[in-house]
Amino acid sequence: MAHQYGEVDYWDDRYTNEREPFEWYMGYGGIRHFLTGKYLMSSVDIASDKSQSTNKDMKGPFQSTEDCRVLIAGCGNSQVGESMLCDGFGKITNVDFSKIVVEQMRGRYSDEWYDELYTRLRRERKLGEVEANSSNIGKKPHVRSPTTKEKVEIPTIEKSKMRFECLDLTKKLTSFQDASFDLIFCKGALDAVLCSANTTDRVQCMMNECHRILDDKHGVMIIISYGEPENRLNCFDCNLWEIKTYTVPKPYVPGEKTGSDYYVYILFKKHGRN
Ligand SMILES: C[S@@+](CC[C@H](N)C(=O)[O-])C[C@H]1O[C@@H](n2cnc3c(N)ncnc32)[C@H](O)[C@@H]1O
Fold this sequence. Notes:
Blueprint: H1 8-17, H2 37-40, H3 43-47, H4 50-54, E1 69-73, H5 80-86, E2 91-96, H6 99-108, H7 111-134, H8 148-152, E3 163-166, E4 183-187, H9 189-193, H10 199-213, E5 220-225, H11 229-232, E6 241-249, E7 261-269
Parallel strand pairs: 1-2, 1-4, 2-3, 4-5
Antiparallel strand pairs: 5-7, 6-7
Organism: Stephanodiscus triporus
Keywords: Methyltransferase, Transferase
Family: Belongs to the methyltransferase superfamily.
């Protein structure tokens, strides 16, 4: 990444000129599986009872996907937030230090946008229910349709809306209290911060603040980066985090060089887990 990626003026200019959604590294499809219990459980979570009940579902160590408090760090104009919303994450806060992109994102996700989304999701869910019920037609009587009670228990789609805040992740995040998020998702923003002057202090402040605002018992931070472990693991304090590293092949883009990988660092807040 170029040196200017750590500077707010660079991003303000870029977003002024490039308003269309842009996805750095990879889209939601390439990372969605990391939001499942298989990846979101620390070794302590797995050793505890939590693995029994939630290991395979979307929510991992969290109470529910709907209540999982998500912070998307350095959101830019990525569509990851709206994809997570469609996947049932109901409490999403997006942060970026570019006031230009924050304003654009607030404008894009208007009340009308949410109305359309939830109307579509309701229609799709209804269709899904009809298909599930119609698959019983013609079957032997012992294959029963869902009872009314079961239908009522299908979760309703609430009208959750995402928040957008203009904040510098490398400064004290005074608007967020301790332990106010369950999951922090950071695609490309740490890499951008590493392109600035005074990198060590800024990264340390960012990582300390992320640690502070994560829930003590089950807080997780997912970092998607182009940086290899030998250049990234030194950003994370092993006393504060349990770290798991995964490699994701660079998606094929016609005309672009292939070969290099992306890295997914999953950091589990240590304090309070044991
Ligand atoms: C490489 S882009 C990634 C954007 C988006 N997450 C994606 O995956 O497409 C980095 C983003 O981080 C933001 N950013 C860089 N440094 C930041 C900082 N110190 N605080 C908050 N946001 C920052 C930039 O404005 C930019 O939107």
